[in-house]
Amino acid sequence: MTSTDISNQPSLLRRLISGDAQQKLLAFASLVLLLIGFSIASPNFMQVSNIIAILQASSVNGVLAIAATLVIITGGIDLSVGTMMTFCAVIAGVVLTYAGLPLPFGILAAILAGAFCGLCSGTLVAKLKIPPFIATLGMMLILKGLSLVISGTRPIYFNETAGFDLISRGSIIGYFFPSLPIPNGVLILFLVAISVSYILSRTVLGRYCFALGSNEESVRLSGVNTDRWKMAIYALSGAIVGIGGLLIASRLNSAQPALGLGYELEAIAAVVIGGTSLSGGRGTILGTLIGALIMAVLINGLRILSVAQEWQTVVTGVIIILAVYADMMRRRKSG
Amino acid sequence: MNSSPSLVDMSGIEKRFPGVHALKNVSFNLRAGEVHALMGENGAGKSTLMKILSGVYLRDSGVVRLDGKEVTFAEPKKAQDAGVGIIHQELSLMNDLTAAQNIFIGREPRFGFGRLDEKALNRQASEIFASMNLDLDPRVCVGELSIARQQMVEIAKALSYRSRVLIMDEPTAALNDTEIDELFVIIRRLQKENVGIIYISHKMDELKRISDRVTIMRDGENVDTVDAKATPVSDIIAMMVGRALIDSDVEIPDTSEGTPALEVRGLTRGREIVDVGFTVQKGEILGFAGLMGAGRTEVARAIFGADPRDAGEVLVHGKSVDIQSPADAVASGIGYLSEDRKHFGLAIGMDIRANVAMASLENYTSKMGKLDEAAIGLVTREYIDKLDIRTPSDQQEVRLLSGGNQQKVVIAKWLLRDCEILIFDEPTRGIDIGAKAEIYKLLNRLAAQGRAIIVISSELPEILRVSHRIAVMSEGRLTGILPGGANTTQEAIMHLATKRETVSESLGATA
């Protein structure tokens, strides 16, 4: 028996109603319900300009959430993505504004700075065996402090770098299709999502992400250099945070060193709403994307309905708890 | 036999851990095409020796030769590459990955640039399954498989390395008889291909069936290497424990008088439990036999209130009790000792005191909610004495105790709670032979003190050894109740355990 028939796979239907798909479906259904609800509640909601505003608002959080998803699937957590984002923006500022180098160097510097920070976190976690929560808590404070030190606590403006603001606010799509002025920030979010999604499902790095979160010791005993892969995953996550740093700096046309704290929690919230398990081993980028969109739609819709900002925060908290509860219920049912 | 060449030759192996001299001048020899059993009580050093062979541990001194060449494996990967595969005792699979992904973890077929060839991965996995005669979709998540199937995936993983030496650490612990037969067919096939197999197990009948030679270890030392077929089981056991065990026959007390301590009527839960009814008298041990999945544990959990039931009545000392939760069951004097001690029976990181008092804390708490540590310590030491728990102190962390002593801590917990009815689910799983005998004696003593005891076990010799009566289940139904002791044979139990429908007249116990 050299070739074996493997056509007795679970039917498409069975796979669709399987656990992970269910959670994605649930998140997606919630998103659609929110969209319908707000459309009915306010005629201003379903405008092209507003939808674009929502997408633009979700781009930074979306990119950070994708970075956080990678680490969370390995069973870790990353509390430093917010201040790391700011740090990368400040580094871009140093390269472009202080040193006056051309734009590509700034972009490269921000991404490399992120990858290096991620590598540091990964080294702390993998080599020194410091729990991810503590290691990234430390990194969060270190990077916040460094951002303030490097910038002298003052914002760094990018006025002298032509085209920097276009990274997020320009629209390549709008250039070719004037009726569809989707900003580059949104385009970048989707490109990052597609790439990371591919990495997770089709590459060795992605496979070890899930494997580490599922049973690290077993991966190690299978002869995989788990430390090295873990460091690589954190570094990739950091590089993506670097992209997030470029997006926010471009949107503000400045690096704001005091910014960043709190972004990590919003990113983790989007990951969780998207159905990624905080205990590791499972999760999807599509889910995280939907999670980030749900949060952006919610904030935008409530604002249009003139709900006070304080209440927007309360609602976000409730949504997070509901999402995790729904996930647990589903898991309990499937045993 | 001497003509077959030595595949593995270990000699003078020494290994120390902090405070423990784990291996003392140990030798071990494996020939190609041989099944070589490695026996010894827990802590005898079998697993340590195998971990050295498979590259998990480094030896302190000694020589390991593979095909006559001296080798040192710095990590498991090196051992695997050299053809030494190991199937670990504790399943070490990644539940969120598919069967195929598990098998090829660390050496996935790739296209380049780190991209995975998922098709090749699944094809190669299904080829291995086919060679094992195993009908399994390589794309199923391992977490969704039964323990037995997960075990098969482990074996497939080891086979995929084209191992010339295969170490199996208690491979049948979670398998039923049919699955064990399948495993043995695979082992014999590997034998024909000149693979050397090291087989660790506590089950004597299996060793007799499958192995050629047996090496016995005790306290980190070699005792002897003997021919498996020619050496009587009692000799092997004697070498393992260092003393001969008296395998006395069951004394069956007269328990025909009086109200049963526990009576169960018409217990039903979905298709798992179908109309199960039985009684247990004071002072009686009722054994529950059956194949895996027959519904024995489900019955115990339903009685204990751990799972809801669709129908059925539970009577304690003749009075109907309404058990909706484990708390209700405990209040009625029923204790349940789970088969999975580490997950459900013990707070593994806490000390003996805390565990013994766990179910009775309200009796050792002042009005202000303060725990009476002195009283807890006193009563814990009393039970350490009574049950002969071997520990340096009552404040030893439970995870540091051996399996047998952990089991005794669980028993102490329920005795302190004054449970008159005790349900033991696989009480000796993972416990070595010497400690098993002690647990059996303890069960007898508990029964003699007037407690009603249910013992669920998958090992027929164990059921026959401890039970006064034997209830047999098959596919959720009670298919018969047999007398214990010498009057019943393993064949009689197996006959009922493989029966397809209820034989209601054999439920004579309700009289």
Give the total of beta strands of chain A.
Answer: 2
| Helix share bin of chain A | over 70%
Helix- and strand-based class of chain A? mainly alpha
Number of helices of chain B: 17
- The amount of beta strand of chain B, in percent, is 15-25%
Helix and strand sequence of chain A: HHHHHHEHHHHHEHHH
Shape of chain B: globular
Question: Strand content of the residues of chain A, in percent?
Answer: under 5%
How would you classify the helix and strand content of chain B by structural class?
A: alpha/beta
> In the CATH scheme, what's the topology name of chain A?
ABC transporter involved in vitamin B12 uptake, BtuC
- Terminal-residue CA separation of chain A: 35 Å
Class of chain A in CATH? Mainly Alpha
Distance between the termini of chain B: 59 Å
Largest sheet of chain B: 6 strands, mixed
Characterization of the model:
The complex is a heterodimer of chains A (335) and B (511). By secondary structure, chain A is mostly helical. Chain A has one domain (46-334): ABC transporter involved in vitamin B12 uptake, BtuC (Orthogonal Bundle), CATH 1.10.3470. Chain A is built from 14 helices and 2 strands. In chain A, strands 1-2 form a two-stranded antiparallel sheet. In chain A, α3 (48-73) runs antiparallel to α11 and α3 crosses α13 (285-304). Chain A starts with 11 loop residues before the first helix and ends with a helix. Residues 1-18 of chain A have low confidence and may be disordered. Chain B is of the alpha/beta class. The longest helix of chain B has 16 residues, at 177-192. Chain B starts with 5 loop residues before the first strand and ends in a 14-residue tail after the last helix. Classes of the chains: A mainly alpha (335), B alpha/beta (511). At the A-B interface, α10 of A face α2, β8 and α4 of B. Chain A: InterPro entries: ABC_transp_permease. Chain A: One of its GO terms (cellular component) is plasma membrane. Chain A: It is found in: Cell inner membrane. Chain A: Keywords: Cell membrane, Membrane, Transmembrane, Transmembrane helix.
